[in-house]
Amino acid sequence: MKSLHKNTFNSMQSINWNEAEKLITSETSDHFLPISKSFSNLNLKSSSIIGMKKLGSFFGSLKDISTQTSSSILNKFSKELEGFVDVSPLDEGLSESFTIYHGNQVRMMYNIRIMVQNFENLLRIPKNNEQQLAYFAKTATSLYSDNINGIIVLLTPSDWPKYAMGESANKTLIQQCKRTTEFHFDNIEKQLITIEKSLPKKDGKPVLNEGDFFVTCHSNLSLIHVVFHLIVSDKYNISKELISKSKCIKGYKNILSYAHKYDINNLTIPLIILPNEQINDLIEKSKRNKIISFKDSILNQYIEVLLKHTKVYMDESSRMIKYSFDSSGKEKNSRTLQFILPKIIDTDSFYNVVDQITKIFKAS
User: Fold this and answer.
1) Residues with Cβ < 8 Å from 209, sequence gap 6 or more?
2) What does the domain layout of the chain look like in residue ranges?
């Protein structure tokens, strides 16, 4: 079934200010951020000749490697690159995967993965030159497809002044963006400068609120094309009711809607939408209060709320008629939601979360 607009990665260029406001606005008109103007360059057909030549020179550099060698490199990593996750830079840790079919009229296939991992490792580029080349080739070729990968990263309003310099939150992300040339989009500094110019100001300083998010696009990260930068509060809420109604959760739901609209089918999500310092503080507080069961902890409340809102999003998106599906009523394209838990989470807590996922999503 064909929609009026093919909402693929390449069609993001058609977004206008009214759409942006609808997508990013919370309940009041005060809580939205403009989308990076890099989206005006997302249609590959309208790419500049210079940009295309740069990308061509990147693939042209493959000529320096013999056909036999390049084939062996790509064959070596082909299986590894089939999945969404960049496995090589990751630490070995706990992980579980599930497949579910969700929806009534159209059965949407979701691959759900949960893993304990340092979030920064997901953004690291392999140091091995041959492997790095293979990953960049995979990233570039998938940029021209419907198989777009996104990731959600967190920052607080106080992180913003030094954010573009890579001296506050998400240092690894900024450093990796600067480490290699951006062939297709504006570089990370220019994208962030464009965003800052459009932000509301107070006393000449940019204003960022909890639940706001902005988007940057990349062709020089390892299997990541779109980064959602979600603003979280410097302070955290204790009440479960406050957590479920927090602006941060609303921002997360808006990101899911945005990803759905533009067929960003693979999304990596921090399962606890809090800065690492706050997570560490809450774990220490649980220990001091002698809270033995992870089920009774505040962190578990954060996780439960996020998972339930994800399920609501899945319910809503399954009712949007924009899919192509087979004779059995199943959508042809699958989606991947990868949830990341910090390394500080122990084994018992991890399997408690896995149990929650199976109950909430009825995973198989």
Assistant:
1) 30, 31, 157, 231, 247
2) 9-361
Render 187-202 in DSSP notation, one character per residue. -HHHHHHHHHHHS-EE
Q: What kind of architecture, by CATH, is found in domain 9-361?
A: 3-Layer(aba) Sandwich (3.40)
| Distance in angstroms between the alpha carbons of the first and the last residue of the chain | 28
Amino acid at 18: N
Whole-angstrom Cα distance, residue 222 to residue 152?
Answer: 15
pLDDT along the chain (364 residues), means of 10: 38 41 38 41 36 44 45 49 45 84 77 91 78 76 79 94 90 90 88 91 90 91 91 73 77 91 90 84 74 74 91 79 53 83 89 92 67
Quick one: which of 102, 169, 156, 137 has its CA closest to 337? Answer: 102
Q: Would you state the pLDDT for residue 48? A: 35
> Using CB atoms within 10 A of its CB, is residue 11 exposed (0-12), middle (13-18) or buried (19+)?
middle
